[in-house]
């Protein structure tokens, strides 16, 4: 049975929109079984929980609970995964990654593909619009999320 990547993305996108409505960073993710059964979903909660480790992919992964094997699972995320989240996918051998967009941020998905994960980039216009709007409205928060340190006068 083939899964509908766009239908899976809808779950992650709903999480991203919920995160934005909470004042957070609008990135959502979900982990699915190979047959499309939802295992866990989550959103970036760095702002809401004051915890820099709660990215969307880690929240979805935690919500899915323990599994003996992740090779047949599908991580769906609204944005190309950063190196931290790419490391999670690699560490646990998640077999497939579906990415909503890699226009506003190009993370570690090439590395994942080079190391055996099946990677599909949808470049969904809803995901692009959501992140573009957020980056325009909250550039400092975005820079913090992706690890860009603020410039300081004594370093210039």
Architecture overview:
This protein is α/β, with parallel strands linked by helices. The chain is built from seven helices and five strands, in the order αββααβαβαβαα. The chain has a five-stranded mixed β-sheet with strand order 2-1-3-4-5. Strand 4 (96-99), helix 5 and strand 5 form a beta-alpha-beta unit. Helix 6 (125-137) packs across helix 7 (139-145). The longest helix is centred in the first third of the chain and has 17 residues, at 5-21. The chain starts with a helix and ends in an 11-residue tail after the last helix. The model has no long low-confidence stretch (mean pLDDT 94).
Spatial strand arrangement across the major sheet:
2-1-3-4-5
State the distance separating the first and last CA atoms: 57 Å
The proportion of residues in beta strands is: 5-15%
Estimated helix fraction: 40-55%
Structural class: alpha/beta
The topology string of helices and strands comes to: HEEHHEHEHEHH
Outline of this structure?
This protein is an alpha/beta fold and 156 residues long. The protein has helices spanning 5-21, 46-49, 56-64, 83-92, 109-114, 125-137, 139-145; strands spanning 28-32, 38-43, 74-77, 96-99, 118-121.
Search tags:
alpha/beta, single chain, globular, 156 residues
List the helices and strands and how they pair.
Elements (H helix, E strand, L loop, with lengths): L4 H17 L6 E5 L5 E6 L2 H4 L6 H9 L9 E4 L5 H10 L3 E4 L9 H6 L3 E4 L3 H13 L1 H7 L11
Parallel strand pairs: 3-4, 4-5
Antiparallel strand pairs: 1-2, 1-3
Helix pairs in contact: 6-7
């Amino acid at each position: 049975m083939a899964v509908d990547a766009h239908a899976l993305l809808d779950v992650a996108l709903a999480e991203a929109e919920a995160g934005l409505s909470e004042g957070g960073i609008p990135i959502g993710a979900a982990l699915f079984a190979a047959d499309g059964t939802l295992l866990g979903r989550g959103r970036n909660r760095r702002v809401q929980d004051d915890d820099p480790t709660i990215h969307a992919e880690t929240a979805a992964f935690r919500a899915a609970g323990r599994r003996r094997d992740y090779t047949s699972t599908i991580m769906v995320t609204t944005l190309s995964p950063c190196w931290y989240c790419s490391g999670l996918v690699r560490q646990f051998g998640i077999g497939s990654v579906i990415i909503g967009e890699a226009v506003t941020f190009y993370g570690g998905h090439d590395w994942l593909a080079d190391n055996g994960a099946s990677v599909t980039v949808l470049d969904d216009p809803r995901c692009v619009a959501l992140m573009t709007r957020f980056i325009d409205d909250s550039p400092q928060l975005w820079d913090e999320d992706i690890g860009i340190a603020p410039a300081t006068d004594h370093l210039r």
